[in-house]
Design brief:
Number of strands of chain A: 3
Structural class of chain A: mainly alpha
Number of helices of chain A: 8
Oligomer: homodimer
Radius of gyration of chain A: 22 Å
Distance between the termini of chain A: 52 Å
DNA sequence: ACTTTATATATCGAACTGATAGTATGCATC
DNA sequence: GATGCATACTATCAGTTCGATATATAAAGT
């Protein structure tokens, strides 16, 4: 499942997402990082450690061009633009009919061993997950308001998807945390 | 957020999950892989490329012991058991109050650029996502029925969490795929 | 005067992914 | 009876990514 038999180097990785972002105009690595945090933060994270090597590889393969703008005292600002080769490559990469959707949850992995934790530890973990969900909802809502209509459909779909998932997560945790209540706590709550 | 300031080597990584699995009894790398596929498949994937090095490191640090059972013609079967040191380490690692929950979705990253795809490409991607969700629901339900009550709370919570998320994903895609319909398709649907 | 935030680059080790490789047994299909 | 496929079991390796860290300046807040 998820792209079996796809030819070499064709995948929706950091390189491809950078390429896609560059279709909306030139940008520096720093600019792209900001976009990874805002519009893609909820579904596809990337740090400088991935972005800079990705841009270097794209430049080497000719998918992007790079203009170095010298600045006094600071390191040069490098501005990247997508090339015709880059467009071709991007469209080929967008042809994947079954892109993956993966979850890596230290949260769930830890809570699966809740029977080895104290009730206090469990409650703290659940509280922090709810807080995290609320913060993500705030970020998404803020972002959604600030742009709204003029966005491409796909971006709106993706953001709505993220919102729905985070909201479902929060609800699940709130409605099922009682599972971890010990008998004493249940008695206390009943009183 | 997400474990800031946690001391070195303390994290809910593949090593720790292996250690946790070994609290339920001795196992080989192969056994652990199967458990990663069944009970943890929906939230924390790991392949042999992570598991074998993890076990080797755990053995080297003394967190697990390893018994090599010679077999004719085949490579030795290596059975691992958690040690007292391993228990200590595991309990320390389970003390993390804010474990992460990360999503890496090639699906959403790709769909964010739907305006560069053909309607057929988009529909195929959405169909395959729904199929994937249905398959995961089938796997979870099957697994849930086969065990049910005798499971530790945490495992039941985690499995229910996974189920809820996958169901929410399926519903969202089904209820919002109309966003990608072109004007012509909408007219055709109205007739 | 001091600290934080923003702009901007980049690297490095550790961890993880996905593919591949090897070897044997058994079971079904042609 | 041969061929192929699934299961059992090990393991490695190149490429990617993660998270932290380093460096340097300017603006803006306290």
């Amino acid at each position: 499942m998820g792209g079996l038999g796809r030819p070499d180097g064709i995948a929706m990785d950091v390189k491809t997402v950078c390429l896609g972002m560059l279709t909306e105009g030139e940008a520096s690595g720093y600019d792209l990082k900001k976009e990874f945090e805002s519009s893609f933060g909820h579904c596809f994270a990337a740090g400088y450690g991935s972005i800079y090597p990705a841009l270097a590889q794209l430049a080497e393969s000719g998918a992007v061009s790079c203009e170095e703008i010298p600045q006094e005292g600071k390191p040069d600002r490098k501005v990247y633009r997508i090339t015709d080769t880059g467009w071709e490559q991007l469209l080929a990469e967008l042809d994947n009919p079954s892109p993956s959707h993966k979850i890596r949850s230290e949260f769930l992995a830890q809570i699966a061993f809740a029977h080895l934790m104290t009730p206090e530890q469990i409650q703290r973990v659940l509280d922090s997950r709810i807080e995290d969900a609320e913060e993500k909802l705030r970020i998404i809502d803020e972002f959604e308001c600030s742009c709204d209509q003029e966005w491409p459909v796909g971006a709106r779909f993706a953001l709505g998807f993220g919102r729905t998932m985070v909201a479902a997560m929060k609800t699940y945790v709130e409605e099922n945390r009682h599972m971890f209540e010990s008998d004493e706590q249940k008695k206390a709550a009943a009183r």
